[in-house]
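To illustrate the input format used throughout this study, we show a single complete record. The first block contains the structure-token representation of the backbone; no residue identities are included at this stage. The design step must infer an amino acid for every position from geometry alone.
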């Protein structure tokens, strides 16, 4: 993933991240990740947003496995985000 340009403001980055979160390729991920993003993106600072943008670059199959299998996110680089999305939807976390 290309790094966010310092010339792109947070509002633009948030809009882009929301679009990417709601257009994953599967309806399940659009709902899980997209609704989380819609509710939380405005509260993310630049560092959190960068991390979420990196999370969005993961393959759909990987994200689906992490989000839909309890315990799957135990020791992966984005476990905190996976657990936050799962908690947002009332799903058990790893």
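Output of the design step:
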């Amino acid at each position: 993933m290309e790094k966010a340009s310092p010339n792109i403001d947070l509002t633009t980055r948030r809009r882009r991240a929301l679009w990417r979160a709601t257009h994953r390729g599967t309806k399940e991920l659009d709902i899980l990740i997209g609704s989380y993003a819609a509710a939380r993106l405005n509260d993310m600072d630049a560092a959190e947003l960068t991390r979420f943008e990196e999370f969005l670059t993961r393959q759909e199959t990987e994200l689906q496995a992490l989000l839909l299998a309890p315990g799957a996110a135990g020791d992966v680089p984005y476990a905190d985000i996976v657990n936050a999305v799962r908690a947002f939807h009332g799903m058990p976390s790893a």
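Structural context for interpreting the output: The mean pLDDT is 88. Residues 70 and 92 are 6 Å apart (CA to CA).
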